[in-house]
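Sequence of Replication-associated recombination protein A (Flavobacterium petrolei).
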Amino acid sequence: MEAPLAERIRPQKLEEYISQAHLVGPNGSLTQQIAKGIIPSLIFWGPPGTGKTTLAQIIAQESKRPFYILSAINSGVKDIREVIEKAKQSGGLFTAKNPILFIDEIHRFSKSQQDSLLAAVEKGWITLIGATTENPSFEVIPALLSRCQVYVLNAFTKKDLESLLERAMKTDTYLSTKNIILGETEALLRLSGGDGRKLLNIFELVVNASNEDEIFITNDLVFSLVQQNTVLYDKTGEQHYDIVSAFIKSIRGSDPNGAVYWLARMIEGGEDVKFIARRMLILSSEDVGNANPTAFIMANNTFQAVTTIGYPESRIILSQCAVYLATSAKSNASYLAIGTAQQLVKQTGDLPVPIHLRNAPTKLMKELGYGEEYKYAHDYTNNFAEQEFLPQALSKTPIYVPGNNSRENSIREFLKNRWKDKYGY
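Predicted 3D structure, token representation.
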């Protein structure tokens, strides 16, 4: 069976490698290391289809090192140990020719699987190259991460992807026999989602579907042949965090259009309804707060409802809540208040509770005056009695500062009426 196009035109040398000039260009850090023949253990972090595996193979080939490859999807500790034993036998320890062990999707390894690599990396039995689409800060254990250099592979640009297509038409033994004209590339690029491997797979599908001597590529032709545009959305990956970030920022920025668009991206990607509702519940307090306390009730009811209902109907409830929050008055005053209070606690330590606020459950405590001068608010006019509620060292320190919106302006007036000039309201 013939290999896929992406495999057939995989670069064999550094000069054939497209993109990542910051790593493998004339002045790239990896270019210099390869030239010196001293390769440290590496983690390649980047989107799918940006050439992580290819780059690892080129490094091994150009540095003339034995190359072993494992996939974290179907490999366990036993497989790792077997490869390490082979590597120990094939390379000299602490030499420039240490075998390279490439692990694809290393973020899928458990802590124990990653632990099994530590000794081999530390003692120089292997040079590890791991590939991940996830942020290694979260997915690679600190002990292993500290022994590796992390290199970020950038997403392919439009120019990079078009260069891939041009090279495929020129160098592939099959495609080079065809008369292919790239009339339009937008559909190919959009459907690929920036993934070079996926781009070449789609391109090959389109070319193979034609029996004509001349194949004229148009957007309509591509869309007619590629029925399913798979949404690029990994529920546990970087894309997941980027899209939910855009969703939250759209609501915070009072744009229901952006909010519902990013909500749709999450829904189409199969995101957990509870995750979406949970984020809106947090936002309702952090970003709307007392400017509209009903927002919290709305978000909480949304969370309860979608937990019970699920897809597909939950999309309607999630949309209603997102629009409500986006079009609501905003205040982060409560969020800032707890941050200020926590910072004060860190700076001032365990300040004593004023004696009139202390609990007095025993006779001795009562004799010592605990709670003696406390004024029960309901015994006073307007249910208010002026007294000190902060430790003495923090007296008159404003912690909650009402936001500038109609409801919190009325809260400001309420506090100013009660506390006069004490807190500067």
